[in-house]
Amino acid sequence: MSGTVLLYGGTSYVGQYLLKSLLDSGTRVVSVINNPVSSKILLGSHVGRIDIVTQADAVTQRDVRAVINLAYVRTASPNRANRENERLMHSVHEAATRTGAERVIHASTIAVFGYEPTGRPKPVPVPVEPGNFYIETKTRAEHLLVQQAKDSRYNLSIVRLGNVVGPASSAWTASLAQRLLEAKPMLKTSGYSNATYVENIGSYFAYLSTVSKPELDRFGTYHHLTEFAQHSWDEFINVIEQTVGLKRVGVDGVRSAGGARLSHTFGAALKQAYHGRWGGYARTVLGRLPMQERLDAAFARVKELDQPEAHLHGSGISSDDATVLGLLAGRVLIEPHTVPGWTPPIPFNTALERIAGWLNASGYAIRPAV
Amino acid sequence: MKHYDIVGCGSVVRRYHAPILRSLIRRQDIRVHGCYDLSEAAAKEMGSLLSAERTGTPENLGDLSRVDAVLIATPPESHVAFIERYLSEGKAVLVEKPFVGTRTEAERVVQISRARKTPVLVGHFRRYYPALNAARAFIREGGLGRVGRVEASEGGRWSWPTFSRYVIESPLGGVIHDTGSHLMDMVLYALDADSGSEPPFEILDVTKIPDTEPSHDCRAEIRLGNTDTGVVELSFAVSRLEPLAGVIKIYGDRGTLIIPTAFASAPLLVQGSETFALKRPEYAAGPTDAIGCFVLEHRELLAAKPGMSSSLSAERFVTLTALLESLATLASPVS
Questions:
Q1: A149 and A202: one domain?
Q2: A3-33 pLDDT, tens per residue?
Q3: The whole model's pTM is what?
Q4: How many domains does one find in chain A?
């Protein structure tokens, strides 16, 4: 396939599968990096087969047929999150316009509908709901890209990924198996998984980079990649249980959250104010102020207000546990919405076999005793 | 009130130690004398956070007469020099893991520590995990019978937001000395194989990516012990490239112990088709998370006195250092 793909977020988990799909199809890949340390570690095995550049060199590339963005803001301090998000999305837009790419393909998430969505999620714009940092950041990114694409010549595809399962998927495969090893609570659940398989994601993005532009224009901006959505979490977890050799434990008898309390100070109030809906508004306002370094320093101090001794007493279900349990309940189905003509190359049963194979090879399985 | 120096003001100090140090300062248990880092800005920032009397680069530690103890959290190749500097003036030391780079250095530090009657503690905070201690006690008491095999693994796709190049350039910056030092220490501690005059191990096979240090993925087959003490076959895997099960599985002839590498209150014991959470009342009142383990680490430093014995004492990490040194030195494949 002629033409170059400019790839943001090539060091991500999905990125390695997309790289494979693109390289297998003979595409030249230019990976745009932000952190040279991460890229040296995670792209080391691809050296010689892809080009690795910074943003300054990305915009000078020729014959670019697509810009694909898998990157998102993860670690900025709260006051910087919106600015960092704007900077990243602007970089993607700038690369597309300056190289003359005819399409931008952006990885978003079904989490823009919330972790426990209601109604019937549709492939349409979603309003920004301040609150959860990840959801808010991903939704804002969608809005920024749509705004930028309005007066541009390129086609914008926003692919909302389902819950990504697959070998080495830390969120939806490795962590579920690890929960068994740690005897952390997990439900018996027939909830919709709303899942997508990682190799299928690589295939879909590669397909979008080659399908005709008029076809993309006709399809619309929003895609939902959830090809295994109807399968329940139990179907995955049963395979994980069989492979690991341990049964999940329920939540009965687990006490509700304890954990550290904050000092009653202005700083503690500020820290709490950054959570939830009002936290979202606070981030927006503070992100516009000029004194970002001072805000960073203030946050460093706020972080020190936890009472260390509180970590020596109490126990219970953590907020992380609660989030996972809520997600596994999966009451709402998010149906796939993908470009006609693309078929997922990996069917469900093959996906399960590969997941089981990876769990076996990666230390999760308990073998017979000596 | 004790006076501390902080040498190295990077992210591990910012994230984990600083909150505890601030609480000790509030309670007037300690005062921070100096904060030092190669980056003067980082030293200054930490100095301001901890109300330090002086800040600067580590070449200018100055007069240590008013210092009682030091926390060393610099890149590992510089540990030995700073440990020896503070030890030579009789100051108690808490050094972040990995301890030092070679067995020779480890033995020298232990020797000086004994001669000066000054404690050196190594920050292997996982030794406070209740699950690890419960497993160790159970094995010691013979609950697992004869232990023949151990499988230990831990990994995750690299996501630490550092721009420091030491993890991709320093021979001690690879996954073996990073995650590997924690994992291997948990294995040795659980098996009660962390001390002894002659480190008893043999590396049978090792595969690394890349095959020189710093490596980011390492798989090894190791024989621990000898015919006198009993032999345990250890499969060891650590990675920055992909997730691996965070677990130590200890196979005995009476069952299998499952110890998570993340904080857990109890290990699992698998016997036939039955699984039990191995809860031990003596460890039930321990820390509730990893931060609690850092708190205990600082309590030990605060209570440091000549001749003290601690699970974090330097002499408990000579075998570990020798093993990590061998893994790092060997190019793959061994066999």
A1: yes
A2: 999 999 999 999 999 999 999 999 999 999 9
A3: 0.89
A4: 2
